[in-house]
């Protein structure tokens, strides 16, 4: 059995004649928190779309917990234990916080539920939704429609929806985008808490979030992972510094 939760082997993705992911290799160990950083347009979101099955790879292989998931559909990958959040809100605005979580739990269980299991199953779904509600600190807003939450609360709910199905590999796409410093500090604390014992892979531009959360940082430049190392080694890496010149280098050097 592999000790890696996620492995990308020479993954490639072209859109028409443009090759966007150009032989990306990445290994994320079970229980590790890995941040994927890189200049705008480097292919970070595309990489997430490949891992979650939204896009098919043009070449290469992706393994989840040692199992080849290349070519599987998003819901099949989800049911093998990988859940992802999106940059764009995934909430049902008119449903309450609790109902959003309950839907996420139900969806993740999918076809596993037969008619005969249904009664017991619904109790499990309720308990799981309540547990996530507690974890994300929105118990007080339980019955409030998602649309009425503050922006930071909505992002917390999105994280709750992502973890609701109990996946052990979590992909978060820019979880603190658009937040104030204090909101993103709270989000870092929340993400840290809800990913204990899980594997986290996140795309993030805010370097204080990256350095506050990641055990390991992968640097994606023009569709290739040019470095993957501890935060301290990444900060000191001359190739990474050069790749960031003209981009976010001030933050990286901070
Ligand atoms: N479905 C698609 N069809 C064609 N080109 C695409 C598609 N998706 C992404 N691209 C192109 O792939 C390149 C990488 O985009 P991607 O969104 O993955 O980069 P990114 O590193 O996430 O950027 P950012 O940091 O700005 O979010 C861009 O040039 C984009 O236009």
Automatic annotation (TrEMBL):
Coiled coil: none annotated. Pfam families: ABC_tran, BCA_ABC_TP_C. One of its GO terms (cellular component) is plasma membrane. SUPFAM superfamilies: P-loop containing nucleoside triphosphate hydrolases (SSF52540). InterPro entries: AAA+_ATPase (IPR003593), ABC_AA/LPS_Transport (IPR051120), ABC_transporter-like_ATP-bd (IPR003439), BCA_ABC_TP_C (IPR032823), P-loop_NTPase (IPR027417). The keyword Cell membrane applies. GO terms for molecular function: ATP binding; ATP hydrolysis activity. Keywords: ATP-binding, Cell membrane, Membrane, Nucleotide-binding, Transport. The keyword Protease does not apply. Signal peptide: none annotated. Residues 6-247 form the ABC transporter domain. PANTHER family: ABC TRANSPORTER ATP-BINDING PROTEIN, CONSERVED COMPONENT OF ABC TRANSPORTER FOR NATURAL AMINO ACIDS-RELATED. This is ABC transporter ATP-binding protein.
């Amino acid at each position: 059995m592999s000790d890696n939760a996620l492995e990308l082997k020479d993954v490639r993705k072209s859109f028409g004649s443009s090759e966007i992911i150009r032989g990306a290799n990445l290994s994320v160990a079970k229980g590790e928190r890995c941040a994927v950083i890189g200049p705008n347009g480097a292919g970070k979101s595309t990489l997430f779309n490949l891992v979650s099955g939204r896009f098919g790879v043009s070449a290469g292989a992706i393994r989840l917990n040692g199992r080849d998931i290349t070519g599987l559909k998003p819901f099949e990958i989800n049911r093998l234990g990988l859940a992802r959040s999106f940059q764009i809100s995934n909430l049902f605005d008119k449903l309450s916080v609790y109902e959003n979580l309950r839907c996420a739990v139900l969806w993740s269980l999918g076809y596993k539920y037969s008619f005969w299991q249904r009664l017991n199953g619904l109790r499990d779904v309720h308990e799981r939704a309540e547990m996530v509600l507690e974890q994300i600190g929105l118990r007080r807003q339980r019955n409030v429609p998602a649309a009425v939450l503050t922006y930071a609360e909505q992002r917390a709910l999105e994280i709750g929806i992502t973890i609701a199905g109990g996946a052990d590999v979590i992909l978060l796409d820019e979880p603190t985008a658009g937040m104030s410093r204090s909101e993103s500090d709270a989000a870092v604390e929340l993400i840290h808490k809800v990913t204990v014992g899980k594997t986290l892979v996140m795309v993030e531009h805010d370097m204080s979030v990256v350095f506050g959360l990641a055990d390991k940082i992968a640097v994606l430049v023009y569709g290739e992972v040019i470095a993957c190392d501890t935060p301290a080694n990444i900060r000191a890496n001359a190739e990474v510094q050069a790749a960031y010149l003209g981009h976010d280098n001030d933050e990286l050097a901070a």
